C-alpha cells in the first residue's frame, strides 16, 4: 500500500513538476527555434501566451516584445511573430511553385459540434470550391446591386440619430452601438433577407448581443486546442451552460439560413447565387447545407463587427484630430450639395475620405493580432529567415502598422500619408511603407467582403459627416478611452465612444 502510494506521488511529481521543467529547459536551450530573440518565459511554455490571451492583452504584450527584441520574435515555444512588411507576401500569398502557408487549426477549426465553413476549411481545393460559389455575391458588380439595401439602413441610422438629437440636443451618443446596429442589420439583410432590426428597435438583437461572448469563448477554446493530448478532458470541463449558449446561438443562424433558402427569391444578396446554383441537384461545385449554415454564421460576424470597429476607431481618431475632421467634412459637403448625391460610385472618388479610412485601418485594424498560419511540411522561409515545419507564424499587424521602420510619426493620425501627393520625394511621408498595412490580408484566403466593406464604410462615414457636426464630449468632463487602451480577444472589445451630434442644418 505504502509502495503504491509513493509510486503514485512520484508519478504525480513527474507529471506536474519534472516534465514541465524538462520541457521548459528543452524549449529554451535545445528547441530548433532557440536562436530566435524573445523573452525566455514566453519561449519556455505556451502558458504565458495563453495567460496574456485570456487577459485580453496579447496584442499589446506582443507589441512590447517586438519593441524590445526586433521585427522577428519568438512568442511561444513553437511560434514566431513578424513585424516586417515583406512577411505578408511570404506567409499569406501564393508564390511561384509554392502554396500559401496553411491556416493554423488551433485557431481556425469548426466550433465543437459545428461543421467546417469557408473560413475554417483546411483543404485548399474545398476552400476554392466554396469561395468560387460565394464570390458571386461579393464582386464589384454585386456590391453595386446591393447599394439600395445598404443605403436604406444608412438612411435609417441618420434618421434614428436625428430623432435622438432633436429630442435631447446636449446628450452624448455612444456611436459604437449605433455602428454595430447598422452593420449587423446590413449583413443580416444581405445574408438572410432579414435584418436584425437593431436600428428599428434601437437596441441589440439578442443574437448580436452575444457575439462578443462568442469570440471570448472561441479564444478560450483555441487555448485548449494547444494541448491536444488533454483537450477532450479540458473541453468536458467547460460549463454545460456555456456550450448550450454557443449551440443556441448557432441554431438561430441555422433557422435564418433555412428561412432564406426556402424563400427562393432572386435578390441582390449573398445567398441568391448559392441557392440558384445548389437548386435541387448537387454537383461538385455546390455547397452542402451544413457548409452553408456554418459559412453564413461566419459571414454575419466577419462582415459586421469588423466594419463597425474600423468606423468606431476612425471616428475616435477624427474627433481627437479636428484638422483632419474639418478637411474631411469640407470634402464631403463641397462634393455633395444634396444627400441623394452620396452614392457608392461617387464616394469612391473622394481622395481624403479614402485616405482617412486607410489611416483608420492602419491604426485600428479589426483583427489586430496575427492571422495564424503553420509552416508546411519540409519547412519554409519568411523574410529570408528559415523556419522548421510546424512552426506557428503570423504577421503582427498592430506592431507593423505602428512601427517607426514603416511609418513617419507612426502613432499619429495622418491621413495625408495616403494621398498621391505624399509620394512626392519632398513629402515627409514619401518613404512610408503603405504596403505594410493589409487589413484584408492577401492571397487565396484574403477577405471576400473587401469591396462591400469599403463601400459600406465610405457611405456610413460620409453620410454621418454630411448630416451632423460631430465632436468629442470631453468638455462634458467625461473623456472617451483612447483606442489603444482596449482589450482584444481575437476581436477588439470596443468601449463606448460617446460623441456629441448636432444636426448640420440646425445652426446654418
Ligand atoms: C473593414 C472590414 C473588414 C476587414 C478589415 C476584414 C478583414 C478580413 C481578414 C484579415 C480576413 C482573412 C482572415 C485570415 O486569412 O485568416 C478576412 C476574411 C474573411 N472576411 Fe473579412 N474583413 C472585413 C469585412 C468583411 C465583410 C463586410 C465581409 C462579408 C460581408 C467579410 C467576410 C469575410 C469572410 C467570409 C472571410 C473568409 C474568407 C476566406 O477564408 O476565403 N469581411 N476578413
From TrEMBL:
Q: Which SUPFAM superfamilies match?
A: Cytochrome P450
Q: Which cofactor does it need?
A: heme
- BP GO annotations: toxin biosynthetic process
* Entry superkingdom: Eukaryota
UniProt keyword GTP-binding, yes or no: no
Per UniProt, the keywords (alphabetical) are: Heme, Iron, Metal-binding, Monooxygenase, Oxidoreductase
Q: Which residues bind heme?
A: 447
Give the InterPro entries listed for this entry. Answer: Cyt_P450 (IPR001128), Cyt_P450_CS (IPR017972), Cyt_P450_E_grp-I (IPR002401), Cyt_P450_sf (IPR036396), Cytochrome_P450_monoxygenase (IPR050121)
One molecular function GO term is: oxidoreductase activity, acting on paired donors, with incorporation or reduction of molecular oxygen
Q: Which family does it belong to?
A: Belongs to the cytochrome P450 family.
PANTHER family per the record? CYTOCHROME P450, P450, PUTATIVE (EUROFUNG)-RELATED
Q: Quote the protein name from its UniProt record.
A: Cytochrome P450
Amino acid at each position: 500500500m505504502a509502495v503504491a502510494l509513493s509510486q503514485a506521488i512520484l508519478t504525480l511529481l513527474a507529471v506536474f513538476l519534472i516534465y514541465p521543467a524538462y520541457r521548459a529547459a528543452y524549449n529554451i536551450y535545445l528547441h530548433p527555434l532557440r536562436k530566435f530573440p524573445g523573452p525566455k518565459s514566453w519561449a519556455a511554455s505556451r502558458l504565458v501566451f495563453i495567460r496574456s490571451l485570456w487577459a485580453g492583452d496579447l496584442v499589446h504584450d506582443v507589441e512590447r516584445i517586438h519593441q524590445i527584441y526586433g521585427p522577428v520574435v519568438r512568442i511561444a515555444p513553437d511560434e514566431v511573430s513578424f513585424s516586417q512588411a515583406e512577411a505578408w507576401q511570404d506567409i499569406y500569398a501564393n508564390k511561384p511553385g509554392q502554396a500559401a502557408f496553411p491556416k493554423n487549426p488551433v485557431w481556425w477549426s469548426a466550433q465543437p459540434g459545428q461543421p467546417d465553413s469557408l473560413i475554417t476549411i483546411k483543404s485548399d481545393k474545398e476552400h476554392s470550391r466554396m469561395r468560387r460559389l460565394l464570390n458571386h455575391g461579393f464582386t464589384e458588380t454585386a456590391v453595386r446591386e446591393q447599394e439600395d439595401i445598404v443605403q436604406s439602413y444608412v438612411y435609417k441610422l441618420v434618421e434614428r440619430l436625428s430623432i435622438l438629437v432633436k429630442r435631447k440636443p446636449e446628450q452624448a451618443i455612444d456611436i459604437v452601438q449605433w455602428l454595430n446596429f447598422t452593420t449587423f442589420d446590413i449583413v443580416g439583410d444581405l445574408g438572410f433577407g432579414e435584418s436584425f432590426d437593431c436600428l428599428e428597435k434601437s437596441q441589440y438583437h439578442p443574437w448580436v448581443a452575444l457575439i462578443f461572448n462568442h469570440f471570448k469563448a472561441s479564444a478560450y477554446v483555441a487555448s485548449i486546442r494547444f494541448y491536444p493530448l488533454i483537450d477532450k478532458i479540458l473541453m468536458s470541463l467547460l460549463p454545460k451552460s456555456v456550450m448550450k449558449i454557443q449551440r443556441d446561438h448557432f441554431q438561430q443562424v441555422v433557422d435564418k439560413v433555412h428561412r432564406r433558402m426556402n424563400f427562393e427569391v432572386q435578390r441582390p444578396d449573398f445567398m441568391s447565387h448559392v441557392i440558384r446554383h445548389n437548386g435541387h441537384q448537387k454537383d461538385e461545385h455546390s455547397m452542402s447545407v451544413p457548409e452553408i449554415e456554418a459559412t453564413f454564421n461566419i459571414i454575419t460576424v466577419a462582415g459586421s463587427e469588423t466594419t463597425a470597429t474600423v468606423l468606431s476607431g476612425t471616428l475616435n481618431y477624427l474627433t481627437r484630430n479636428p484638422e483632419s475632421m474639418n478637411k474631411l467634412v469640407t470634402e464631403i459637403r463641397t462634393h455633395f450639395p444634396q444627400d441623394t448625391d452620396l452614392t457608392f460610385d461617387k464616394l469612391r472618388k473622394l481622395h481624403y475620405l479614402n485616405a482617412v479610412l486607410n489611416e483608420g485601418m492602419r491604426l485600428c485594424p479589426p483583427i489586430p493580432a496575427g492571422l495564424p498560419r503553420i509552416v508546411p511540411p519540409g519547412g519554409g522561409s519568411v523574410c529570408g529567415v528559415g523556419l522548421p515545419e510546424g512552426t506557428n507564424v503570423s504577421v503582427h499587424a498592430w506592431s507593423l502598422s505602428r512601427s517607426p521602420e514603416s511609418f513617419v510619426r507612426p502613432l499619429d493620425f495622418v491621413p495625408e500619408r495616403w494621398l498621391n501627393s505624399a509620394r512626392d520625394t519632398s513629402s515627409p511621408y514619401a518613404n512610408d511603407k503603405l504596403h505594410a498595412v493589409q487589413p484584408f490580408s492577401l492571397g487565396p484566403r484574403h477577405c471576400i467582403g473587401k469591396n462591400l466593406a469599403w463601400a459600406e464604410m465610405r457611405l456610413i462615414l460620409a453620410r454621418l459627416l454630411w448630416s451632423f457636426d460631430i465632436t468629442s464630449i470631453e468638455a462634458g468632463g467625461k473623456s472617451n478611452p483612447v483606442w489603444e487602451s482596449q482589450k482584444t480577444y481575437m476581436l477588439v472589445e470596443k468601449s463606448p465612444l460617446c460623441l456629441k451630434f448636432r444636426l448640420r442644418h440646425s445652426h446654418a
